[in-house]
Amino acid sequence: MSNYHIKHLEEYYQVYRKSVRNPEVFWEEIAEEHFMWRKKWDNVLSWDFTKPEVKWFEGAQLNITENCIDRHLYTRGDKTAIIFEPNDPKESAEHITYKQLHDRVCRFANVLKEKGIKKGDRVCIYLPMIPELAISVLACARIGAIHSVVFAGFSASALATRIKDSECKMVITSDGSFRGSKTIDLKGIVDEALDECDTVQNVLVANRIDSKIKMKEGRDYWLEPLLDVASTDCEPEIMNAEDPLFILYTSGSTGKPKGMVHTTAGYMVYTAYTFKNVFQYREKDVYWCTADIGWITGHSYIVYGPLCNGATTIMFEGVPSYPDFGRFWEIVEKHKVNQFYTAPTAIRALAKEGVDHLEKHDLSSLKVLGTVGEPINEEAWHWYDDNVGKKKAPIVDTWWQTETGGIMITPIAFATPTKPTYATLPFIGIQPALMDENGKEIKGNQVDGRLCIKFPWPSMARTIWGNHQRYKDTYFAAFENKYFTGDGALRDEVGYYRITGRVDDVIIVSGHNLGTAPIEDAINEHPAVAESAIVGFPHDIKGNALYGYVTLKETGESRNHDNLRKEINQLITEQVGPIAKLDKIQFTAGLPKTRSGKIMRRILRKIACKDTSNLGDTSTLLNPEIVKGIMDEVL
Ligand code: PRX
């Protein structure tokens, strides 16, 4: 099995060199040896970043679910594919074998077909972390329907925007969800969203919380009775390499969310190959990624990457704090987890609780620890290393994005020496570049700049659903012939990368990517608000929290600011979701603007961070006096 388990740094460099000197030969070998194809490709790669257009394995035919399920049936049919760990620790975990997964995916796929879903149709999935979520994702892929999973913490309005954008024909949801001690009325949220969406013909509803919900006649169906009578055989739809597999929405710095489109063959090859190498997954290992399948991490590293490798992957329905902060460690001990992949925000929240919870559990099964979603600070890195990994489990700090589909810059466990806060080296086949503000590449080490990628990789998103121009403008316009990530990074003396954070108006809160525009739109809907601007400021646990500057309309009336703050956060919860609530709201007489009317967020960001010693040049502002007023109020 060539290059499939990289074991030491020298081997990494060797394979890396091979992968960039001759990418086509390299990826062809990987694709040929490790996957099941109905027809091989005619051409490994064609690309043009000016259009932009990228095609991998053109001419090939396959179905990703045959790779994730069917091909394991002979050798691993009775192996556990998915362990479902429910929210309530008193409820038993469910072990789903590859054979059972096959039958459940086929049944689900047959239900979709019976309800008229065909290849190319978009299906929105709005489910909690229960087995039906992974199964419905795979069922869509089985029949060539394009899944669009929306994180079940988004509001009705955010859900509606996503359903409308990709004109989904169906929504799959549940009656409700359990989250810690709360239950959430998911079906109610779907009903509200569907008031605005006329493309949805059917809603399939899984029963999770046994609640009495309203079912709309002719539109809504309980899933279980349909699954019960469906056949466990479903021939996979034969897909072309570049047929879309899924759409996943991510926030942009402006405008509505972007529906990133991922296609079939390249995504499969890259997520499977990265999974096996980065985490050094071995046949009997139990792997756990704590993300939600509503995010890209869950798509690539709970579902597709692990299952393609015949792995055992855990799905956890709950939260780290329920019933107490020992829950993660209890699960690690219970299922003897070998690879554990989580986010810095969870690590910080757990670290705050001390080590008592950890000490109650046997964590000796852990071999590899992972982190993703935002920069990890030094303190959290050491806490993770010392207390969870006991200095024996390497930490893979994996940098990547919804748009990249798979892990891009990362240590390879046991092969790459780790360094706190550094994502370290580009993964095999990835060619990063740091650019200066004039569009020139900064060569050499001990430098920093804007992070770009110079050469295509198999799992990159191919377009934004319905808006190829926006795809081009967002990712390929800033630097000629390069994919621009939106992140800043530095490269140290040995060539290790450290991601320093976003250089645009996207703010990462608790690992969730939030664009400023939809939040500001929500605030501005308040009748008393004239305009608003939000920025991020450092927060001990969330990494960043949101700071809103709000200017009120001049009506002459006096307003209760505390009530207004509550109303504004309520609007944000309704329109975007509770994750986007503001931690601080400052009412200001105006917002600093350039002469062309653009809000100077750079200044607002500095004030929010109480870093006012060097505000930079404010003389070009239309209204420099505003800055002083805002500062006086804060300091
Ligand atoms: O800023 C980077 C940050 O998260 C952004 C991508 O967010 P999203 O598309 O939601 O995907 C998150 C999961 C892959 C990036 O542009 N980010 C992600 N991983 C890291 C990170 N920042 C620093 N270190 C990381 N390991």
Description:
This protein is 31% helix and 24% strand. The chain is globular, with a radius of gyration of 24 Å. The protein has an eight-stranded mixed β-sheet, sandwiched between helices. Strands 5-4-17-16-18-19-20 form a seven-stranded mixed β-sheet, sandwiched between helices. Strands 21-22-24-25 form a four-stranded antiparallel β-sheet, with no helix packed on it. By secondary structure, it is α/β, with parallel strands linked by helices. β4 and β5 form a beta hairpin. The protein binds adenosine-5'-monophosphate-propyl ester (PRX). This is Acetate--CoA ligase. Pfam families: ACAS_N, AMP-binding, AMP-binding_C. Residues 71-462 form the AMP-dependent synthetase/ligase domain. One of its GO terms (molecular function) is acetate-CoA ligase activity. InterPro entries: Ac_CoA_lig, ACAS_N, AMP-bd_C, AMP-bd_C_sf, AMP-binding_CS, AMP-dep_synth/lig_dom, ANL_N_sf.
Tally the beta strands.
30
Shape designation? globular
Which spans of ≥5 residues are poorly predicted at pLDDT below 50? none
Which percent band covers the strand fraction? Answer: 15-25%
* Helical segment count: 20
Which structural class is indicated by helix and strand composition? alpha/beta
Proportion in helices = 25-40%
Average residue pLDDT: 95
Tell me the strand order in the biggest sheet: 12-11-8-6-7-14-15-23
Bound molecules: adenosine-5'-monophosphate-propyl ester
Describe the sheet with the most strands: 8 strands, mixed
Instruction: From the alpha carbons, calculate the radius of gyration and give it in angstroms.
Output: 24 Å
- Terminal CA distance: 62 Å
